[in-house]
Specification:
This is non-specific serine/threonine protein kinase. By secondary structure, the protein is of the alpha+beta class. About 30% of the residues lie in helices and about 10% in strands. The C terminus is likely disordered.
């Protein structure tokens, strides 16, 4: 197993003794854990079946016990994925292929039974070693109910793998846009929006703020009870500190979600994430993709088409997902649309903080289970967004069309210095509201 990375790349892992321990762990023969001698016999073919509450509940309890990031061997991960069998594939992306697996004592003595997702870096893919290392560094230290839990990693030779808790219901993208799926209810959509908002707020309010930079429906994963968790931290960036107003960086992200000022200048702030959140909230409200080339030209960009309607109390109900079949509160819809309107402001300073977004979404959560049939006459006032500091000022709605193509890859590093597998982060801090 090769030595991993540079000190600059591992700046997030700041304690020297942790780095020293990692260096020791990366030397063959220094890992005290005996290699597994046999493969587990349990099938993982039913891992995505949400109809097994007993297994899901056991998995949830066991996941809590994994407080340390584990350094897995390549052999162990080959074992739990049956040598990365094609029928174990959960999905594929810019990073590479994700496989389902199952860890327990048959893999390594002392491991609790847990279904996992194993992400394998594609050596010829768009993302490289730096993104892998970024993800390990951030998720290895951050813990929050709305961030996917990193169980472990593997760094052997040129192999880079990540092991996460398994999310039984997959991505929000699939639930919103796959035709075969049952439409998400209004209450579930608002619950998902709140969970994702809490995850972003936690990152923005960390001791060293973190800008997520790639907030989109495919990166929001859902647990068995539709708890939303942010995944894929490969593009995450440490935010500005002190007198800094922004972080200058190459423009990376996903077309249709990136904030316009970031695309134009490369200046990254927490408000860039707020804009991306506004796009996802708009997707939840409308059931439409951020960019859809199959629609008429004026409707292909969701933001361009929908934002002017968000502040019109009569037009806004026309853009609500028809699959909801009017099963939602008009007042809640107005507030959610108003929130999306402000998040999508062209002026970054006019966008709310994510802590304010959380405050706005919390009253929209369904507690009684009841719904009101939609009626234009049921609302008598123009929607306003009320946060801790009162309604946000109304801004203009200049036309915006993105002409930049986002992307770009970072070349693979010479090696990888991984975070301390024995580092145990503190408990998840509560989402701080300013």
């Amino acid at each position: 197993m090769g030595n991993c990375g540079t000190r600059e790349e591992s700046a997030v892992v700041s304690h020297a003794h942790q780095v020293q321990q990692l260096h020791m762990l990366s030397i063959p023969g220094r890992n005290a854990t005996a290699p597994p001698e046999k493969k587990h016999s349990r099938s993982t073919s039913d891992l995505s079946d949400p109809s097994t509450p007993c297994n899901i509940e056991d998995s949830r309890k066991n996941a809590v016990l994994y407080t340390h990031v584990i350094a897995f061997t390549l052999f162990e991960l080959e074992t739990i994925t049956k040598s990365f069998r094609p029928d174990y594939i959960l999905g594929e992306g810019g990073f590479g292929t994700v496989y389902k697996g199952y860890i327990d004592e048959n893999v390594r003595v002392g491991l609790k039974s847990l279904p996992v997702a194993v992400k394998v870096l594609n050596k010829e893919g768009l993302q490289g070693h730096r993104e892998w290392l970024t993800e390990v560094n951030f998720l290895g230290q951050l813990r929050h109910p709305n961030l996917v839990k990193l169980i472990g990693y593997c760094c052997e030779d040129d192999h880079r793998l990540l092991v996460y808790e398994f999310m039984f219901r997959g991505s929000l993208e699939n639930h919103l846009f796959r035709k075969a799926t049952v439409p998400l209810s209004w209450a579930t959509r608002m619950m998902i929006a709140l969970g994702a908002a809490k995850g972003l707020a936690f990152l923005h309010n960390a001791e060293r703020p973190v800008i997520y930079r790639d907030f989109k429906t495919s990166n929001i994963l859902l647990d068995s009870d539709y708890t939303a968790k942010l995944s894929d931290f490969g593009l995450a960036k440490a935010g500005p500190q002190g007198d800094e107003t922004h972080v200058s960086t190459r423009v990376m992200g996903t077309y249709g979600y990136a904030a316009p000022e970031y695309v134009m200048t490369g200046h990254l702030t927490a408000r860039s994430d707020v804009y991306s959140f506004g796009v996802v909230l708009l997707e939840l409200l409308t059931g439409r993709k951020s960019v859809d080339k199959t629609r008429p030209s004026k409707e292909q960009s969701l933001v361009d088409w929908a934002r002017p309607k968000l502040n019109d109390k009569r037009k806004l109900l026309q853009i609500i997902d028809p699959r909801l079949e009017n099963q939602y509160s008009v007042r809640a819809a107005q507030k959610a649309c108003s929130l999306a309107y402000y998040c999508l402001s062209q002026n970054p300073k006019a966008r709310p903080l994510m802590s304010d977004v959380v405050e706005t979404l919390e009253p929209l959560q369904s507690r009684s289970g009841g719904t009101n049939e939609v009626s234009l006459s049921s609302s008598s006032s123009t929607p306003t967004l009320m946060g801790a500091g009162g309604p946000f000022a109304m801004g203009g709605t200049p036309d915006y069309r993105m002409h930049h193509r986002l992307g770009g890859s970072v070349g693979a590093g010479a090696g990888c210095r991984s975070p301390n597998p024995n580092y145990s982060p503190g408990g998840a801090a509560a989402c701080r509201v300013r």
